[in-house]
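STRUCTURE:
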């Protein structure tokens, strides 16, 4: 968080962000999605991003990609899909600010990626890196995920508002993070629009 502290010390202002998990939020989670043919957009995702864009709120993707470490697909596959995804958002007039991904997994096939890495959710490393890189006010930010690991990473990073879509596959943690539960991404967009309207009043 050093760059954020320096920016604030220099009179800069930290800004809120919209933090999004990918699989299950941006696209339907089909397990290890690595090709355009397998990528199905979630209804409501472009509306959600547009709300943030209209208020110049950074939109940051925070995604575990253990399929790289487990050899289901390559880093190049992920980067190609990400480039296409971001280009599609931009073409729709709803650009993404930054994408952070974690290829590490404790049981990775590649020894270089075999680790309980601090970026792998539920650890908060990716969110903290984004906050530092983009000078984000995490306490004012919103994290949207579909698994408890998303919520736990956000809580550990100090994200002020956590939204969980649908029913997580993961077992409930012993201590539940405080979350807003919604059925789908369209409902997230409605919730987020209402929140932004309330903040503007």
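SEQUENCE:
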């Amino acid at each position: 968080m050093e760059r954020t502290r320096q920016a604030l010390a220099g009179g800069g202002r930290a800004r809120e962000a919209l933090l999004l998990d990918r699989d299950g939020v941006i696209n339907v989670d089909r397990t290890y999605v690595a090709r355009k043919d397998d990528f199905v957009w979630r209804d409501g995702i472009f509306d959600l991003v547009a709300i943030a864009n209209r208020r110049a709120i950074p939109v940051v993707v925070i995604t575990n990609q253990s399929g790289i470490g487990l050899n289901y697909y390559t880093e190049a596959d992920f980067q190609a899909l990400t480039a296409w995804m971001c280009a599609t958002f931009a073409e729709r007039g709803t650009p993404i600010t930054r994408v952070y991904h974690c290829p590490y997994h404790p049981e990775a096939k590649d020894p270089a990626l075999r680790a309980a890495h601090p970026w792998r959710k539920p650890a908060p490393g990716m969110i903290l890196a984004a906050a530092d890189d983009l000078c984000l006010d995490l306490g004012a930010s919103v994290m949207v995920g579909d698994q408890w690991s998303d919520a736990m990473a956000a809580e550990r990073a100090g994200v002020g508002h956590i939204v969980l879509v649908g029913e997580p596959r993961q077992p409930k943690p012993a201590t539940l993070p405080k979350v807003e539960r919604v059925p789908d991404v369209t409902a997230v967009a409605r919730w987020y629009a209402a929140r932004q309207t309330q903040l503007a009043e």
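REMARK: The longest strand covers residues 59-64.
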